[in-house]
Amino acid sequence: MKKRHLILVMNLLISAGLIAAGSTESRPSADAVSRISVTDALGRELTIPANPDYIICSGPGSLRLCSYLQAQNKVIAVDDIENRRSKFDARPYALANPQFRDLPVFGEFRGHDNPELIIALDPQPQVIFKTYSGMGTDPAELQRKTGIPVIALNYGDLGRYREDFYTSLRLMGRILDKTERAEEIITYVEETVKDLEERSAGAAEQSGRSCYVGGIAHKGPHGIRSTEPAYPPFIFLKANNLAHDSSKGFDDLQHSDIAKEQLIDWDPDIIFVDISTMQSGDEGNAVNELADDPVYRELSAVKHKKVFGVLPYNWYTSNHGSTLANAYYIGTILYPERFAGINPSAKADEIYTFLVGKPVFSQLNGFFDNAGFSPVFN
User: Fold this and answer.
1) Which is it for strands 270-274 and 240-241: parallel, antiparallel or unpaired?
2) Any residues with CB less than 8 A from the CB of 248 and at least 6 apart, and which?
3) Which option is the CATH number for 196-375: 1.10.10.10, 3.40.630.30, 3.30.70.100, 3.40.50.1980?
4) C-alpha to C-alpha distance for 310 and 372, rounded to whole angstroms
5) Alpha carbon 317 to its chain's center
6) CB distance 130 to 123 below 8 Å
7) Domain with CATH 3.40.50.1980 in the chain
8) Could you write out the three-class secondary structure of 167-214?
9) For residue 70, which phi and psi values (nearest 5 degrees)?
10) At the fourth CATH level, which superfamily is domain 32-187?
């Protein structure tokens, strides 16, 4: 009996060993993982895992690009802006992905990454994507300290640096096996801008009305004097933007604080207010400035109640979907006949659904007392 028992045990051990050996052979080794070579926005050539399962996105807009590409399920940690609870939030990608709030934090917002926190993550990210590489932790230093490839990206915009936006989408898409989705986004943006331009062709000359946008956020909320001469929705619509030198196109200054006297002198027919200004509370709020300042109350747009709220578009850098949505709303105000049939809030949700997967207009606008896409003074 003892002998038979011993033989049985030995057979079981041998079988277990064979199963373990077979299991080991069936799992690809680290060396066998498919890898690709890429060149990032800093011109660095990097060899990285193809289609990584685990990533993190550092810097303003990096996680937004990932969400556009429908690769948010690969994200295993976030910077601390995603964990904050605020009265206001104007980031459609974050509203569409509330799960980001529950992920571990790997560093502070604006690219101030913590290598120790990254090393402690389990599972470990295989790739780090980083926008605005001159801000926060240096990409090369972060890579050296963590041993994880860091891909620098130029975030771009929908204006002068639109090609940077497209290049980053394509690079990120190639790495994440989302090349088809990247091309879909680029095509969608191009067709949307083309539609805006065609609807508004020659309309500004016909209407003769001037306009201005104030309250534009720039690393925080600002008042009515904060504007962007090359405000993309105005450029798409060929609007008569008094703050813009039309000969400069998108090359005009991207952000400017104009003098109060200048706005009074311009006296625009229509004023648009970026409702991000509401973060300022009672003081410094563009809406309150227009309502309470006796000098501003003499502006034609204020007297004739031609002041309208538009969605925040600079919120942890530019929200491209909100830029396009604002353009359609502004079009309905400036050129109502050209934009007949456009429901701005429904159009915004169409854009958001395509880019981030959910119709989040009402949720976003609700943070700002539904001041977007409506008259400021009734």
Assistant:
1) unpaired
2) 229, 230
3) 3.40.50.1980
4) 5
5) 6
6) no
7) 32-187, 196-375
8) HHHHHHHHHCCCHHHHHHHHHHHHHHHHHHHHHHCCHHHHHCCEEEEE
9) 60, 40
10) Nitrogenase molybdenum iron protein domain (3.40.50.1980)
Q: How confident is the model at residue 253 (pLDDT cuts 50, 70, 90)?
A: low
Cα 37 from Cα 175, distance rounded (Å): 9
What is the spatial distance between Cα 288 and Cα 56, in angstroms, rounded to a whole number?
40
The pTM of this model reads: 0.89
Burial of 364 (0-12, 13-18, 19+ CB in 10 A): buried
Q: What separation, in Å, do the N-terminal and C-terminal C-alpha atoms of the chain show? A: 97
DSSP assigned state of 253:
-
Given a contact cutoff of 8 angstroms between Cβ atoms, the answer to whether 317 and 60 are in contact is yes
Q: Is beta strand 150-153 parallel, antiparallel or unpaired with respect to 55-58?
A: unpaired
Instruction: Using DSSP, state whether 372 is helix, strand or coil.
Output: coil
Mean pLDDT of 262-285: 93
Cα–Cα distance, 291 to 282 (Å, whole number): 11
Per-residue model confidence (pLDDT) at position 234: 96
Residue whose structure tokens are 């706005």: 263
Q: Residue 349 — very low, low, confident or very high, per pLDDT cuts 50/70/90?
A: very high
Residue indicated by tokens 């805006």:
196
* CA pair distance 91, 172, nearest whole angstrom: 20
* Chain segment 75-126, per-residue pLDDT in tens: 999 999 998 877 899 999 999 999 999 999 999 999 999 999 999 999 999 9
Show Cβ contacts of residue 286 under 8 Å, excluding neighbours closer than 6 positions.
214, 215, 222, 223, 224, 226, 273, 274, 277, 280
Kind of pairing, strands 55-58 and 127-131? parallel
- What residues contact 130, with CB distance under 8 A and at least 6 apart? 57, 58, 59, 62, 111, 113, 139, 142, 150, 151, 152, 153
How far apart are alpha carbons 61 and 322 in whole angstroms? 13
Cα 334 to Cα 125: distance, rounded to the nearest angstrom: 48
